[in-house]
Amino acid sequence: MVWALERQLEKINRANDIKNIDKHMLPVLASEIRSFLLENISSTGGHLASNLGIVELTLALHYCFNPEKDRIIWDVGHQAYVHKILTGRKDRFDSLRQLDGLSGFPKPNESVCDAFAAGHSSTSISAALGMAKARDLMGTDEKIISVIGDGSITGGLAYEGLNNAGRSNTSMIVVLNDNEMSISSNVGAMSKHLNDLRTNKKYLDAKEGVHKFLDKVPFGGKIDRTIETVKNSVKYSIVAGKSEDDDPYPFSGIMFEELGFKYIGPIDGHNTDELIAVFEKIKDIKKPILVHVKTIKGKGYQFAEKLPWKYHGVDCFDLKTGTAVKKSGRVSYSKVFGDTMVELASKSKKIVAISAAMISGTGLDEFEAKFPKRMFDVAIAEQHAVTFAAGMAARGFIPVFAVYSTFLQRAYDQIVHDVCLQGLHVVFAIDRAGIVGADGETHQGIFDISFMAHIPGMVFMAPSNGSELKAMIIKAAEMDCPVAVRYPRDCIPEEKIEALPEIEMGKAEIIHDGSDIAIVCCGTMMDKCEGLYERLKADGYRPMLVNARFIKPVDTEMVKNVCSKCRRIFTVEDNLKAGGFGSIFENCAYDMGFTGVNVYRFAFDDKFIEQGTREQLFERYGLNSDSMYTKASEIMKGKSNG
Questions:
Q1: Which DSSP string corresponds to 108-146?
Q2: pLDDT confidence of 415, banded at 50, 70, 90?
Q3: Which segment, 55-59, 150-154, 201-205, is predicted with the most confidence on average?
Q4: What is the number of alpha carbons within 13 Å of residue 477 lying toward its C-beta?
Q5: CB of 406 within 8 A of CB of 445?
Q6: Number of other CB atoms surrounding residue 512 within 10 Å
Q7: What SS3 class is residue 235?
Q8: Least confident among 282-296, 323-337, 499-513, 610-624
Q9: Residue 495 pLDDT greater than 80, yes or no
Q10: H or E element: which one contains 550?
Q11: How far apart are CA 589 and CA 205, in angstroms?
Q12: Mind listing the pLDDT tens digit for each residue in 349-384?
């Protein structure tokens, strides 16, 4: 067995190289990949537990299918690191999630093996069905595989996809990666026998032959239906899983069978021989197949296995201890929000919190611990979360939906129709607004102002620091209308929360009065605006610095004051220019008769913003103090039109 000492990972340099590795050596390759992942992710940060848990499943898929031809669609995509390693990107892995480096998610423009761009959950089944139907229309023969986790399948879109795919009668495979539940009692000899039988080509051909024969025989339809009834009775008694406490297993095959899928599983997701055997048997079946695979999240790394949620997405960490390499010690905006929610809930039983599988990420851990009956985690279902909140608001409660900006996009219709149309008092605490950094295009929160501020009845606030965030959350809870507060994935600039400012409805704060130039800041870009202010002041100008506070309703008195005094106005925000705060300000000025006012908008252009640190991206897109000063100076000297 000396040959076994050769490193298998060194043989993987391009797509399909795995097929040159002896099948019995795949467990060795799996171990080497786990070591590779740990070494790299501990240095770059990234999604750890999910990728450690899916190693063998990914190896089996690549062993049985051709990723350059067959389409493997990874739901969310944060678990596709192993897929990237196996498709020629191993040598670039030290650039993972870095500026201009390897993306942490599938990107078709990064590799032909990345079938579909993803960063949000529950999309893979619908995308896979679309690709399968396109294949059928083209007359080609590529295999279509969707890989979806037990978390992502809680999203409503996944069920819409399942419902449509099950009755499509087209060839596609859905792999359900179940890394949370225990394996039910139907794992074993009987389950394996049933799976072997149900995927046997002779069995499937014989079954189809019986149906065709009965179609030609008088009264055949009745006989066929009788056979189907008996078959279903047996199927319900055998296929439906039972857990140890005799409750139906959450992912028993019955639901999927009823939706039209051929159900296979559960299967040990860390046994490459078993996985390969199943995929080889089913890949030519011309029907929708669902393969239920059981895996352990964080497998192979004791800290991640014990606390998989903690190691879902990690910053740089020490491999030996599992602890973060560096801690800033500063308080995050999410923590300020969470602490404020605890204070509010302690004073009012009407306060309830809602999360879409992001309790910890949005700072609601303590709220959940202290008020478990008033903490509602609806899983990955933002649309449901908003309408659920509307229902609670309609009965007199004050629901606060804490949600990442990028994920709130999916609930736009519910915000319009179920909340704002009825004027219901729902509070949207929009976390991760603006640039989030390493997750890149799919997660940058640069659209929320544009898609929220134009909705009738919505009040929209943006704090410039932690004290204002706390004051605005308190203010939002006191209102009687739809209200949103946006804040970034960042730490507050001050060491602690100071005395709370008074937040007057629809009123901005004039920090420095002046003339000639006005800098109107929206939200937590204030530190950069203060830098711009100081440099313009040093040049001899008398700039005005304004903290807008309200995106909607915009302070019309402030707009009038600024436009009357200043010939050059710079608005600053971490949103797109299109439909952003600068557009709102400019429209307000125009409506008030200031048609000749010169408004220059510092914001992101009409594009999706790539990965990188917040500061790197602010510099690249001209939104740091130095870049804004250079541009503003050119404008003031007539060297640029903006």
A1: TTT-TT--S---SSS-HHHHHHHHHHHHHHHT----EEE
A2: very high
A3: 55-59
A4: 22
A5: yes
A6: 15
A7: helix
A8: 323-337
A9: no
A10: strand 550-552
A11: 73
A12: 999 999 999 999 999 999 999 999 999 999 999 999
At 612 the three-state DSSP class reads coil
Measure the CA–CA gap between 189 and 181, rounded to whole angstroms: 20
HEC profile for 446-507?
CCHHHHHCCCCCCEEECCCCHHHHHHHHHHHHHCCCCEEEECCCCECCCCCCCCCCCCCCCC
The helix (run of H) or strand (run of E) holding residue 399 is strand 398-404
- Return the structure tokens found at 361: 């990420």
Q: Which of 97, 297, 486, 577 is catalytic?
A: 297
- The answer to whether the Cα torsion of 66, 69, 71, 74 is positive or negative is positive
Please determine, for residue 187, whether its predicted confidence score (pLDDT) is greater than 70: no
**Residue 192 buriedness (CB in 10 A; 0-12 / 13-18 / 19+):** middle
Q: Indicate the SS3 state at residue 224.
A: helix
Token pair, residue 109, equals: 């423009």
Total residue length of the chain? 642
Helix (H, G, I), strand (E, B) or coil at 286: coil
**Alpha-carbon distances of 250 from 46, 150, 234, rounded to whole Å:** 30, 10, 19
> Which is catalytic among the residues 56, 142, 257, 382?
382
Q: Do 473 and 485 touch, CB atoms closer than 8 A?
A: yes
Between 556-565 and 581-591, two packed helices, what is the crossing angle to 10 degrees? 80
297 in active site:
yes
Q: Residue 412 in 3-state DSSP?
A: helix
Rounded CA gap, 392 and 206, in Å?
Answer: 54
Using CA atoms, how far apart are residues 431 and 6, in angstroms rounded to an integer?
Answer: 48
> Average pLDDT, stretch 294-300?
94
Average pLDDT of the residues in 386-400: 98
For residue 280, the Cα-to-chain-centroid distance in whole angstroms is: 32
Query: CA torsion angle for 570, 573, 577, 578 (degrees, to 10)?
Result: -120
What's the rounded mean pLDDT across residues 502-522? 96
Residue-wise pLDDT for 199-209, tens only, equals 555 545 555 55
Please give the DSSP secondary-structure letter assigned to residue 317: B
Residue that is written with structure tokens 């609806």 in the block? 378
**Three-state secondary-structure class, residue 424:** coil
Global pTM reads 0.87
Residue 244 has pLDDT above 50, yes or no: no
Q: Cite the DSSP H helix spans in 493-613.
A: 526-538, 556-565, 581-591
Q: Of 299, 410, 432, 470, which is the active-site residue? A: 410
Question: What count of Cα atoms within 13 Å lies in the side-chain half-sphere of residue 505?
Answer: 9
Those residues whose C-beta lies under 8 Å from the C-beta of residue 184, and which sit 6 or more positions away, are 241, 242, 243, 249, 252, 266
